Amino acid sequence: MLFIKTIKAEKIKLRHSLVWIAFILLPIIPAIMGTFNYLQNKDILTDGWYSLWTQHTLFSCYFFLPVTVGVYCSYLYRLEHVNHNWYRVMTLPVPPIYSYLSKLIIVSSMVVLTQIWIGILFILSGKLCGLTESIPKELIEWLLYGVLGGTVICAIQLCISLVIRSFALPVGIALIGGIGSIPAFSAGYGVMYPYALLGLGMRANAPGGPIQCSIPMYFQNSMIYVGICVVFAYVWMKRKDVFAG
Amino acid sequence: MRALRIEFLKIRYKKIWLIVFSIIIVQGLWQLWAVRKMDANDLVQGWMFCLYQFPVLNTIMMPITAAVVASRLCDVEHKGEMLKLLYTVIPEQKLFFTKFLCGALFMTLATILQVFIIVTIGSIKGFVGSIPMDKMLYYFVFTVLINVTILLIQQLLSLHFKNQMIPITIGLLGSFMGLFSLFFPEGIKRFLIWSYYGVLLLVGMDWNEKTRVTNYYYTSPDWIGFFVVIFVFVAVYALSLVLIKRREI
Question: What pLDDT was estimated at residue B18?
């Protein structure tokens, strides 16, 4: 019950915030530009919806979605990092880990909404492009796997934002993490590298085929990373003396 | 000079250099990975390949780097509620210029490191021909100019908005649009400052669809684009001075 209240408190903190700017605008740009690029290169991109999906997601998954999640997480911890709020948070009769977990749930639900928004934009773009074939059935699967991969990035970025008091620095780290997923993916270690799980799950570069690792392994690694982050956050908040300012 | 020293003192534990340095390391590793398998034809085109690749990497990474640097420099004042006090001891314009100079030094250092990486990779891999000094100089000047113009825009936003999510999101959007505009016709590219890394490219690429062979060739510098960036820089700077003077803290 206390945990539910903590989640509600996190929701209240987000009320009237400007986080919707990032949420609404950021997926629109790759959708518009990916569609435009698809239309420009229709003679090469002959695979209909699948080609359009690569145009929408290829750059987003590796560069921009990790950074968007970084922005969400930095924003969620900003309130704690200013106005001596850590002292208040840590003296509340609530286990500190509840704060991390409720943030993880809130930011993951934002990822769910982002994925739904990406899906809607994809369908709209396809219709506007005049794609007559039916919408790929795998779309739901790509988006769901994207939620799981996104949640892993959320867990890591929340840990980074918990430790680093700056808003911008964790965003920069998210950028480096996202870029790092390209060599990890090319070397065949995508499933081992947490930032690559998003692109791997969303089939950003191979939407027509199966996921490029076993599904149990994908789930197992995602859960391991989330688990490590939760343990880290627990230990950090338990052991580390807060510094508020 | 004293104001600049104070600016560096404020950020001495903020490790701004670390994020800039990390981005350059990532770019260097990316480039090393890209040149790992080069045949004789690739080595002939090695310098051109690097001068083509780095602006593309810059389009993705530098706007966000500039946003992070500007945010780190300005957020320190927001967090400490320092602007009201600071403006009583230093004119707004001077503080703005000092912060900009501080950020610009980081962005210039990043470009120097990039040139160093290109030259080092070229020497290690044995690119054919001597270092194209004129192209390197153009690359350095153009990249620094675009970097500092984007930094200026970001600094104006970071100083204006207390909530750093807004400038960071705008930086991210710019990076997004810049990257995608690389695939767009020339006319559209020129409307976005973030796409000028691509507009001021010194190398063109010709990809043969049938043979799948890529050939690079030097192009003459786009001086119109260069002056457009200078104009944007001057206009944004003038606008910044007016806005920060008028803004109530």
Answer: 86
